[in-house]
Amino acid sequence: MIDTIQTPIKKTALGYLRISDKKQIKGESKKNQKEAIEKFAAANGIRVIKWFYDEAKSGKNTERDELQNLLKMALKMKGQIDYVIVYKMNRASRDLESYILGIRSVLSSRGIKIRSATEQFDDSPMGNFMESLYVMVGQLDNENKRETVNDNMTRLAKQGYWQHKPLRGYTTTKINNSEGQPRPTLKASAEADKATKILMRFNRGDVTPAELCRFATSIDYLNLKGKPISQESITRMIKCPEYAGYVHDKFTNYELVEGKHKGLVTSDVYWQNQEILKRKNKVYLLGVKHLTINSMVPLRKFMLCVSCHQSMTSSNPGGKQRYYCARETCRGTGSVVADDAHAKFEELLTQIEPKPNTLKLMKEVLVRTSVKQLGNINQDVLELRDKLDELSATRANTIKKYVNGKLSDDEKQMVIDDVDIEKLDTTDQLTELEQQQTVSEANIEYALNFMANMAQQWSDASLELKQKFQNLIFPKGFEYDIQNDNFIINEISPLYRCITPAMEADLSKNSLMVTSRGIEPRLPG
After folding, report:
1. Are residues 242 and 176 located together in one domain of the fold?
2. DSSP state letter for 516
3. Distance from CA of residue 196 to its chain's centroid?
4. Helix, strand, or coil (residue 70)
5. How far apart are CA 435 and CA 173, in angstroms?
6. Which of 97, 111, 235, 406 shows a CA-CA span of 20 to 30 A to 173?
7. Least confident stretch, 48-62, 146-160, 285-299
């Protein structure tokens, strides 16, 4: 450890000063830091030959102008500088990783040691630990402050205070909370009336976005460059709930919170505008219309006409959806109410169940497959973990070579960057495989039960799943004889069978083509 008594000048040093924020000096002003370093240097026979000072700079990384200048000078003056002295280790860094990689390793490669004027440590193992500990204390303090700030901002946001730049039509101000403490919010600006006029004009529902932009120009509501405002900006304005007196941001998890500021329009106007936006979005409307209609007629283009053997379509005369064949050759074959067809189809599905050996065989196949896959996954997981260990070793060896002067700064950084990228990719792969390891026999049982109860599954499913169920059981569809109110099954999946009273009496027949009430097989010829 460096002696603390006054000794003759024997060593040289660079002095480093840093203030992160003038509001947070608290006894660590530039003057106080410099005086402490000078006193320490004089007591230990060290002459400070040059000073470096970073003002209003964070200590969480090494991206500081004067620190970089110090490191450059240290690299050029190998053998001429013994120490870099700081007031406290948190002045050098508040992040252990960036300190070790960006400061200590650079200095140690030139035989330069770092010392603190107010904290004691030496070059022993315990001294190295204490050096790192002082940096980690600063890092912990930073993280605690960041968490505290985030908690405070979350608390304020959920109370309805605005903590960002003002929106067009507003300016920022402060109001006192219940404890008399000033808190940030919004108040109407000189542009508020124009913003309200634009939002209310849109609320009438008879204007396009382009026309609304022209209206904004007519009342002199322009962008910050004095040019007509864009449709994108107008749309963002309409979607912004803050204009209705709400607050929503990452601190509220983007949930709407009643703000402390007064809205430029009412909440009713805001929500009406959102509906108008949807109605003016042609893609949205087409998608909604298409999905709504198709969801009402899932058998459309799947159920076949008994006369022409082609798919039926649907329509809604009198507001009630019906299936029918639209081809001229099939005129007069009639139509069936969609709800009636669905009820008959669900009745048909109640008579559909897996063959006696199907579930047993499927379970055996799934179990064997999962065991085999899990075996492969387990091996892949081990290999990926070994790879991560190798990458960590490569990274450590690279830093060691750099510290020993065997690699340049650029060479070191290139290797570390490549290793870090590969580690991220490998970690992602490992996470995905570990999730796949959770496959269990319970999942297989669930899948098999899901397969067995087709009527209920079809009834509860979305349109997409309904269509998949239909195609799974009846790969070639089925015909519906409207006149005789019969389903005619052309083909059923070999995984399933249709149960009838006759079959229940004699399951040994186990025929795929069976007849049930309202169901007829397709006969040859």
Report:
1. yes
2. B
3. 34
4. helix
5. 49
6. 235
7. 285-299
